[in-house]
Amino acid sequence: MRLAITLFISMCFLFSQHANARLGETKTQLDARFGPCIRTLPADRGEEMLQYRLKNLMVLITLVHGKSEMEIYAPQDARTPFRQSETQSLLEDNSFGKRWRSITNIPAWFLGSSPDPRSWIAVATYFPKSAQMIAPSLTIMTADYARRRGLMPKI
After folding, report:
1. How close are the terminal C-alpha atoms of the chain, in Å?
2. Could you read off the pLDDT of 119-150 as tens digits, one per residue?
3. Would you say 117 and 152 are in contact if contact means Cβ atoms under 8 Å apart?
4. What angle do CA 91, 86, 16 make, to 5 degrees?
5. Residues near 91 by Cβ (< 8 Å), separated by ≥ 6?
6. Considering only CA atoms, which of 152, 148, 134 is closest in space to residue 45?
């Protein structure tokens, strides 16, 4: 009986954690969500970068070992800034059932149990305009990916 209860609680935790998750999806799941991939772009070794369209957004997904670890959302016209409701909706879609917390010194958020970056699950940044991005963009990535790439926001 104890084993059954433990398995039930474990399964509830696993399913609730991934019910809203988008990071971690496979190409098959991404194709189901966005429709067929528009094109595959050059990526670093061991990674695959796919381009999709979602309504009026261009979406670039980086797969590592076949799972989404970074998603970049940008307007198709490369000019229109995101409305706050759009940003919040995309963050919620990638929330793992948790609450995003704001990083105060930059337009960024983290998912984690504390402000300590070692506890973070994912990070997101929004740049209405920057030298690195040609369009307003929202980038959402796993904290592990951000650490490996040196993209972890400084707080």
Report:
1. 46
2. 999 999 988 766 666 788 999 999 999 999 99
3. yes
4. 30
5. 100, 109, 124, 138, 140
6. 148
